[in-house]
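Whiteboard transcription, Tuesday session. T.W. wrote the structure tokens on the left side:
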């Protein structure tokens, strides 16, 4: 087949006119263009890759990029959908919609692009239904291979855009797959500039964004598509008449929809703050220092996003509370990752579920991913298991991701029983730090009781907190909370006001877990010494509490 006499050069880089040192204009490659997805896509087209498969939800964004490439390369541009068939995509004005268009049939559409003579780029939207393994697709798959063979000797490129990758084995050597990443903060910054410019003449709209607030807003938007971000910014302006850092909650609401649709992760709404965490000074200081890692200045300084922390310790001492508090402190969504619920009876489904959950977490990053009681979920990996190795494979998938992840997903994993934790999980590189959370000391118990009384509208200064902390040695934070609640029930049932005596009685009637599981607690502390960083300034041992038992002749 003969080609037109004027063909665009194969490897001519996209250029823009720039003045040189003498003031003379020269054609120079656009700065940083080689780092972009646009450049990668342009290279594939110039290198005559016949079929490119782009996995993305942002078909409009991809279409815009392909149209720009087509214009620069002097190529025709066509768009195919199953509803409209093939239509010109490079003509200004409303796009034609012909229901009688015969090219809405996939085979007819592929025959048409083979017959086209001019250099062109064709974008086929939602074509993944016809590229997957299916007996009904045999003819289409064969025709696609014919297209690939024909296009190799032409200046035409077929680009398939779909939200998921489904490619039959027969096409594996003919199709090049490209994952189109979600927008960056720079993309959102340009979107915000455009919205600001559009609204500047509207007296009822106020956009007040100092650089620090702007960074927070743009970081919160990461994980959304440009269309989703534009929608949520517009929604904020309609509801509030302004746009500032306080509107981050609305962006979280948009991300919440993404999580709920997946069914694999739980979007955990929490009202807890770091002020509700008593003691744990070392852990809180460590977390506060990493708050600044999400600013543009930190990125320029070379700071990477924090990877995560493993919290070991006694049950009920604030591990889960810390996960909730850090989410509020960093103004990031909290995703609860229950590994146990992802296990399925179908072979391979559990591993696929974990990979899907990880992908979803990265898609809404920056975010906090909370893996609660990871020791129970991974208990099958430390010894013999009757699950056919599923636990080990799931664990391997999780370990690989923890080591290699680049998305700003901060992982907080909590564990009570260290004997169930595989050694591979504890080595450096999976988490930034391993903290041990012990029973609260007396000062921390005073603070815990104060917090729980204040939460329930009682003035803590009306109670003898020092005495209550003294008689509650060995209590965890959760046990102190339950003691406060129990005393409230007692006082209310007796139609009395809450007093120190009623609180003291509730504490005396409670047998703490540290008494019933004293040996296990001693073993846990012994393991943590030298292996983990203490979350508090001082360990919870007081007086002769938890005295070592010796046999002396």
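and on the right, the sequence the group agreed on:
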């Amino acid at each position: 087949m003969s080609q037109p006499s004027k063909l665009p050069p194969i490897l001519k880089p996209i250029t823009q006119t720039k003045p040189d040192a003498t003031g003379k204009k020269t054609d120079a490659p656009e700065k940083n263009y080689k780092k972009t997805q646009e450049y990668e896509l342009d290279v594939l087209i110039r290198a005559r890759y016949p079929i490119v498969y782009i996995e993305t939800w942002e078909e409009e964004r991809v279409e815009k990029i392909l149209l720009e490439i087509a214009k620069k390369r002097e190529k025709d541009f066509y768009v195919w959908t199953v509803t409209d068939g093939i239509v010109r995509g490079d003509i200004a004005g409303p796009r034609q919609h012909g229901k009688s268009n015969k090219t809405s049939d996939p085979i007819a559409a592929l025959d048409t692009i083979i017959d086209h003579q001019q250099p062109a780029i064709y974008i086929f939207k939602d074509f993944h239904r016809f590229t997957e393994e299916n007996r009904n697709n045999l003819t289409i798959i064969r025709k696609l291979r014919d297209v690939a063979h024909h296009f190799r000797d032409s200046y035409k490129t077929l680009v398939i855009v779909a939200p998921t990758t489904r490619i039959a084995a027969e096409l594996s050597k003919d199709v090049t797959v490209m994952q189109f990443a979600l927008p960056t903060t720079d993309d959102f910054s340009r979107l915000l500039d455009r919205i600001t410019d559009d609204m500047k003449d509207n007296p009822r709209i106020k956009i007040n964004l100092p650089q620090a607030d702007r960074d927070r807003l743009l970081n919160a938007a990461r994980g959304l598509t440009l269309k989703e971000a534009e929608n949520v910014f517009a929604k904020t302006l309609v509801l509030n008449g302004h746009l500032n850092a306080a509107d981050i909650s609305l962006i979280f609401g948009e991300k919440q929809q993404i999580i709920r649709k997946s069914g694999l992760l739980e979007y955990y709404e929490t009202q807890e703050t770091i002020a509700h965490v008593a003691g744990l000074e070392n852990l809180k200081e460590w977390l506060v220092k990493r708050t600044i890692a999400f600013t543009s200045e930190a990125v320029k300084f070379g700071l990477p996003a924090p990877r995560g922390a493993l919290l070991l310790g006694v049950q009920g001492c604030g591990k889960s509370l810390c996960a909730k508090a850090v989410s509020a402190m960093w103004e990031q969504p909290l995703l609860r990752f229950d590994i146990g619920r992802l296990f399925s009876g179908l072979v391979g489904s559990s591993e696929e579920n974990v990979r899907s959950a990880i992908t979803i977490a990265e898609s809404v990053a920056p975010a906090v991913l909370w893996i609660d009681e990871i020791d129970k979920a991974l208990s099958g990996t430390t010894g013999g298991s009757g699950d056919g190795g599923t636990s080990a494979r799931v664990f391997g998938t999780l370990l690989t991701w923890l080591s290699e992840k680049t998305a700003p997903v901060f992982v907080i994993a909590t564990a009570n029983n260290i004997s169930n934790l595989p050694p591979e999980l504890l080595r450096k590189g999976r988490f930034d730090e391993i903290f041990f959370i012990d029973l609260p000391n007396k000062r921390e118990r005073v603070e815990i009781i104060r917090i729980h009384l204040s939460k329930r509208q009682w003035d803590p200064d009306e109670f003898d907190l020092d005495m209550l902390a003294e008689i509650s040695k060995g209590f965890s934070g959760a046990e102190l909370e339950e003691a406060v609640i129990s005393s409230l029930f007692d006082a209310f049932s007796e139609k009395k006001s809450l007093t120190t005596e009623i609180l003291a009685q509730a504490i005396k009637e409670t047998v703490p877990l540290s008494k019933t599981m004293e040996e296990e607690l001693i073993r846990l502390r012994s393991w943590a010494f030298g292996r983990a960083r203490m979350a508090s300034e001082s360990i919870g041992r007081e007086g002769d509490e938890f005295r070592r038992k010796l046999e002396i002749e």
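Someone added at the bottom: The domain at 274-308+315-431 is CATH 3.40.50.300 (Rossmann fold).
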